[in-house]
Known about the structure:
Blueprint: E1 4-6, H1 10-20, E2 24-29, H2 34-41, H3 47-56, E3 58-63, E4 85-89, E5 95-100, H4 105-122, H5 126-139, H6 143-160, H7 169-178, H8 183-188
Helix pairs in contact: 3-4, 4-5, 4-6, 5-6, 6-7
Amino acid sequence: xxxxxxxxxxxxxxxxxxxxxxxxxxxxxxxxxxxxxxxxxxxxxxxxxxxxxxxxxxxxxxxxxxxxxxxxxxxxxxxxxxxxxxxxxxxxxxxxxxxxxxxxxxxxxxxxxxxxxxxxxxxxxxxxxxxxxxxxxxxxxxxxxxxxxxxxxxxxxxxxxxxxxxxxxxxxxxxxxxxxxxxxxxxxxxxxxxxx
Length: 196
């Protein structure tokens, strides 16, 4: 894979991400980690996943037990408590999304698409983010992912419509109607609050 790096060439990976304008996906793994091993023998063997990673990310497999030091200023990450841990970064090194634990091929693509959408939002590309999120809301079979996707669809629409609060409504109302009581519906349950 041409966009595949390790912790040993992380500076080159981040430079490639800037040049190609691609987000970065870091798989923090550890020797002896059963979830990491399952990613290697299952998810990363899926041709759909391999093609997806190659087309959409600069990919770094980062051995958390390696003694190599990461060059200062390359990137910052929140703590890695458990592996596998996947972090998506914008191409400028801003951490966007963190997901921990083994992911099946479909879960992996859904989670990373959410990360890509977030990276687009951070780059003020709300239209592209909304397109990706709306596609994910249709293609995903996971209710938990769809709930979060609907939330972020509202946010992307908000930014796309020059911060118009009413642009949140179609997505957040659907979220609250179809997934009442969910964490994401609770987060969206502010539409009726009156501002000063």
